[in-house]
Task: structure prediction
Amino acid sequence: MNHSIVYSNVRINESTHSLRFFMESPVHPGQFIMIWAPGIGEIPISFSSVNNPVEITVKIYGEPSKYIANLMPGEKIFYRGPYGRPFTGVTGKKLIIGAGTGIAPLMPLVDNMTSAILSAKTKNDLIFTDRIKNLYVVTDDGTLGIKGFAVDALKQMDINEFDMIYVCGPEIMMKSVYDYLLNKTDRVEFSLERPMKCGIGICDSCSINGIQVCRDGPVFSIKDLKNMDEFGRTRLSFSGKRIYL
Amino acid sequence: MNLNVDIGIKISNPFILASGILDENGYTMKRILENGAAAVVTKSIGTSERQGYNPPIIYENDPVFLNAVGLSNPGIDNFKDEVKIALESGRPVIGSIFGKDAPEFSELAKKMESYGVSAIELNLSCPHVNGYGMEVGSDPDLVYEIVSEVKSRVKIPVFSKLSPNTSNILEEAKAAEKSDALVLINTLKGMEIDIASKKPVLSNVYGGLSGKCIKPVGIRYVYEVKKETGKTVIGVGGIENVNDAIEYIMAGASAVQIGTAIYRHGIKIFNELNSGLIEYMDKNGISNINDMIGVAIA
Result:
């Protein structure tokens, strides 16, 4: 098990924290890390910045994430990784589409050529709005920006403008974006999130059509997903029970 | 060149996916069967849905692999569709089951049989309900009872996966002698502590050690059990490449199972093992793999 020392911890909304720490191994946009809360649990978390001190962004939803979100500067942070296949970098214009904390792994892609669609349930769930210049905000309840879903904002844009589109969020949201972009462009990458236990491609928890999200993903191109009919349809639960989305 | 072996079922090569690795989702098993594995053993399935232990369920410090998944599984009734998907490959699926006693094992075996699996693998390493902290497999009378009852209730072959965490493997093997084949070995019980946090690395504290560091133990058990009982043996434990597999076969294994090695080599290991075996047999003038089984036994 590796460990580092927490450099900073910033609370970015009611239940979300961004922590920075130094890592020896290089990290690429789209990769993730397994963070260990000793004696409590272990969860996968993606990087919201890949430059040292790297940054992870964690939303509190259980005991391990609560432990991690409460780590103070100077305390040890335990991890294994980084793991996973990163996003393909491009130099031209980029569009990132993120829903909820799904925006976090897309943040390392942000530069002055990047536009973003940022969606959330409500205004208070939006994060990183201050870090992106060309920003289109969508909320389910209309408390900020367009009322609706990420795909609704996408439909108002000229997608040919972008050299690459990157998407991350709940699978249902990504499926609606996938359905809209299918046969329109091949330059789209999605970062999938499925229940993950081992993180190294052997436990089968996160698999989709025989492919391991933790090892072969989490980033897949729209072309990859064409051959995965489990996408947006079914996944296995923590116990291994098939769930229909 | 003949790579077919008979382990109670006839399989097209000696390489089988071991239980517990990439065998919970039917689509994953199907993909592995379509990529060189002669058969797959499913994740161990019990009577009802179990969440298993909280992560960390695995600790990797290559070559050390420790796991304590805690028998997470969807329950036998929910597993039917996964077997169905895996069987679309047209290759055999071996159903691994665990239970607390003979009636439970029998019920699970019957259901697995009805799903279309080709054989049953009994996971005898689950906790013994009456012997606290013990494994079912370390009680020879219970093993005998489970194997006898399952054998009398299903028509398909029954394999017993034995635990190395015992003082007398031959006693265990003898108790399971009604099985069509013995699968050796399950993981070795172990643990590690992270000294920076002063905590055990697995949430369950104890786990099962797998990977290449356990291969000499597996070879020894396969050799000893084959030599002393003559039973059909399936070897498992630390196989990383074709030489390891050949070593197991020479020790007496009719087939071998691959698990942890997928971490380093990926699913493509099955095709690599097949081509490696063909190359070895070709170079050494061996036309039938069955001529290699147990040749090292003195």
